[in-house]
Amino acid sequence: MLRIYFFISLMCLVRSDTDEACLSFTRLSFHSAVVGTKLDVKLMLFTRRNLTCAQAVNSTALGNLNVTKKTTFIVHGFRPTGSPPVWIGDLVEGLLFVEDMNVVVVDWNRGATTVLYNHASSKTREVAIFLKEFIDQMLAKGASYEDIYMIGVSLGAHISGFVGKMCNGQLGRITGLDPAGPLFNGKPPEDRLHPSDAQFVDVIHSDIDAMGYKEPLGNIDFYPNGGLDQPGCPKTILGGLQYFKCDHQRSMYLYLSSLRENCSITAYPCDSYRDYRNGKCVNCETSQKTSCPLLGYYADYWKDYLTEKDPPMTKAFFDTAEEKPFCIYHYFVDIITWNKNVRRGFITIKLTDKAGNTTESKIDHEPATFQKYHQVSLLARFNQDLDKVAAISLVFSTGSVVGPKYKLRILRMKLRSLAHPERPQLCRYDLVLLENTETVFQPILCPKLHM
Q1: What are the chain's domains?
Q2: I want to staple 205 with a disulfide (CB 3.0 to 4.6 A). Which of 23, 227, 337, 348 is the partner?
Q3: Neighbours of 436 (CB within 10 A)
Q4: Looking at the keywords, is Protein biosynthesis present (predicted)?
Q5: Catalytic one among 107, 147, 160, 178?
């Protein structure tokens, strides 16, 4: 039933400006972007009490905003076409579904709508001042800094940082979703988002080679797929408008996935994406935590541990699938070989369950080195998590299309789940893989080690 109410509220987001019963997000034309727009900020309040439409609030009228509850501000970024962000309705719905709170959509489309990015960027501090005045009124009515959470997208991430600075870093939390890079890269802390802008700052970087900010900006900085090209996004300009915005927007859709119950994206603190891919950073042993940090809404589970570090900053890496909900399931493939000579190459592993469902992982980011009687642990990443694995197939390749076909003689292969370490580990002994030839077998349970 709650989902039905949310659907009604989403319909209200796109009502015309003449509908006085409910406030709608400003919708402008491309013509407005060409001629430019003067800054005008609107605040749209959603709560579980007024799910059916947004209520206008300002520093003199807080409306249904309950100052004793958490208040989450959603701050969008640059709008070169004037249209409302397509993700706003889903984000409002998701936040109110997971927690009873106030959700305030910050509509600064008049100001953000322009074909000239630097014009929109120049408005960010003005938006921050407007929000600071509103927060001051909330505090005067009994709200606390601890309960104020800001989610800023692109330019909105830096706006959130400016608000945080004006509040002396006392805001409860700021989440930056691919903070804007152009005109901000290389700027000093006072001119961009910074870890000290709130009690906890988490950032998702999904387009560091184009529209996003490359360097860390938070207490924890997440880099999906290394922060570069995102799976499922166009790789060439032939992808049209999606080529320019898909990687940048992916940070938002990854955050949205954290609000759904069917996908919790785990990230792995690491010095580099390469180290993560090579399986060097898949354990998160801390004095207070037993699991690795989660991306998105629940990233603050690591708040206490991270803010006690010196400096209080950590980078975390993970990979995603091409489509929603983007989850990847990690396994280790441990291989001991007995070839006389060293073999260098790649492994492709495919899992099949009793129902015939299959999932495949190509471990081909760099060649593995197999030496006699040395265990090589490869990090395999699957789009599906198959509970009961009935069959496994392996393919060994050197990547060469000419020359002799090599064999990889496996003394023992072991498959172990990182997401579910309690599951039985699966083994197979004495295999010979002929290069570029699929070898299918039924695994057996690995013997348990007795201490």
Answers
A1: 2-318 (3.40.50.1820), 329-445 (2.60.60.20)
A2: 227
A3: 16
A4: no
A5: 178
Residues in the chain: 451
What is the C-alpha separation between 1 and 194, in angstroms, rounded? 40
Which residue ranges make up the annotated binding site?
Answer: 192, 197
Does the annotation count 154 as an active-site position? yes
Q: Using CA atoms, how far apart are residues 255 and 91, in angstroms rounded to an integer?
A: 9
Active site residue 178: yes
Q: Catalytic residue, from 154, 160, 361, 397: name it.
A: 154
The pLDDT score that the predictor gives to residue 284 is 76
- The first and second tokens of residue 447, run together, are 């013997």
**Cα–Cα separations (whole angstroms), residue 48 to 7, 44, 65, 380:** 13, 14, 11, 42
CA–CA distances in Å: residue 80 to residues 25, 30, 83, 116, 411: 16, 8, 8, 8, 59
Whether the per-residue pLDDT at 6 is higher than 50: the answer is no
Marked catalytic residue, from 76, 194, 248, 330:
248
Q: β-strands 102-108, 71-75: how paired?
A: parallel
d(CA 5, CA 274): 45
Of 236 and 229, the one with more pLDDT: 229
Q: Give yes or no: 248 in active site.
A: yes
Q: How far apart are CA 433 and CA 234, in angstroms?
A: 35
DSSP per-residue codes, 13-52 = HTS-TT-TTSB------HHHHHH----EEEEEEE-SSS-S
Give residue 407's identity as a one-letter amino acid code: K
Binding site membership for Ca(2+): which residues? 192, 197
